[in-house]
TrEMBL record, chains A, B:
This is Phosphate propanoyltransferase. It comes from Cohnella soli. Its cofactor is Zn(2+). One of its GO terms (molecular function) is acyltransferase activity. The lineage of its organism: Bacteria, Bacillati, Bacillota, Bacilli, Bacillales. It comes from the Bacteria. It is an enzyme of class 2 (transferase).
Length: 258, 258
């Protein structure tokens, strides 16, 4: 392609999809003066995308099984006064670990024992399950990013020393990509971007809305749950390909057709 | 876009992705004489795609739980001499039914009782499970289209009157779209096409390689298994959007970048 004109921008606007801000342009794209003015008038910046980087970059997959994050006080309720979590093994994100401790989740229809606690303990208790787990428990949590717990269902957590009735905090985790600041710069990704990621195995699925989470402490990792892993035939250590940033696939197809 | 040139075709070929045959062109696309010759020399036909039809068409979803198709002789082994299947309810595809009969699947690591038999009985016995089921049974079948059973693993099927040791026939079903001949014409889809289908709910996934199966007896239906349904938050009766035919998403993105 290469040439971004005012006409093509107006066509994008007219199609109802709006213009991303900043507007991504490839290294070989050219923007006509009229198109540049058009963007400037709308206070839309330009974002240069390094060629051949973002398209095709491979991102390692981390499959998250059901797990629980506990507040310090809930650790004590579940495992006894003065208890703390003990690391079983380190996780891909620095400082995070799978704890030796496990709990039982109890829902209206069933329970799931042996659910791993992740450490270290954090401010608010949060339970992450798959939709398959939800069927077994008899609950139907929404898809949420970690920490976004307002209005989510509760659940009962049972430990060896006691139980916690959580009034909210049960989620199915929204898939997301952890990126270090360096990864983000290298891949031209910004915090909050929506990434399109293509699985490369026997079940070619595209994850069309993976949220980018950028932090200097993060390691590059695409986090999905077991349902998503099974649907795409992915395992921890496999890779997916970054095929787009902040793009709607239906729009891509329409562009090609008209 | 609109203009298909010999240069753009050579670029497609050069990228290693090959050219689809027939080559799809939108109603507003123009093909230069050189490009038309280029395609003709390679015996590649042109396929006009009706505008605004294929892109955006909604296709109903049918979620397939684990199930078994049985040969007539296996029906007798499992349910007794002279037995036949009894319809419990009709399925979306004409003439197909969920039978009252169920069996138990027995694998190296576990078993799953109450697995529905689908009728009518057919030539060869075939067992379709999800990857999640496979973990429970201790087997890892490949993703296959129905009927493509060469080299697939076996499984033990237990019924009330006997058991069948299947030496092959266990698959995870490849997702596919049933289309009537009329549906296919309306959507410009041909038998064997690979469809890109976008889920529209809380987990926007694109199924990037759904096989089109066209038959005059078929009803429009996108068949996925329970893992795929959970990963996309889809249920039977939901719809997905057809966003492309025989296209590679990574290519779409590259086109936009360069």
């Amino acid at each position: 392609m290469g040439l971004i004109t005012e006409t093509s921008l107006r066509a994008m606007l007219g199609s109802g999809r709006g213009l991303p801000n900043p507007f991504p342009i490839g290294a070989e794209d050219r923007v006509t003066p009229a198109a540049a003015d058009f963007l400037k008038d709308r206070r839309i910046g330009l974002r240069r995308i390094a060629p051949g980087r973002e398209a095709g970059a491979l991102i390692p997959v981390g499959v998250s099984n059901r797990h629980v994050h506990l507040s310090p006080s809930h650790v004590e309720v579940l495992f006894g006064r003065g208890s703390r979590l003990h690391s079983l093994r380190e996780l891909s994100q620095k400082g995070q670990f799978a704890a030796q401790e496990t709990v039982t989740l109890v829902g209206p229809k069933g329970e799931i024992p042996g659910v791993r606690v992740l450490g270290p303990s954090r401010g608010v208790t949060q339970v992450e399950i798959s939709q398959t787990d939800g069927r077994q428990l008899g609950v139907a949590p929404a898809v949420r990013l970690s920490g976004d717990l307002a209005g989510t269902p509760g659940i009962l957590i049972r430990g060896p020393a006691g139980a916690v009735v959580l009034s909210e905090g049960l989620i199915v985790a929204r898939n997301h990509v952890h990126l270090s600041t360096d990864d983000a710069a290298r891949l031209s990704v910004q915090h909050g971007d929506r990434l399109l990621l293509q699985s490369l195995g026997d079940r070619p699925i595209v994850f069309a809305d993976a949220t980018a989470r950028v932090d200097e402490r993060f390691s590059l990792d695409f986090h999905i749950d077991t349902d998503e892993a099974n649907a795409a035939f992915l395992r921890t250590g496999d890779v997916v390909r970054l095929v787009g940033i902040n793009m709607n696939i239906a729009d891509l197809f329409r562009e090609r057709q008209t």
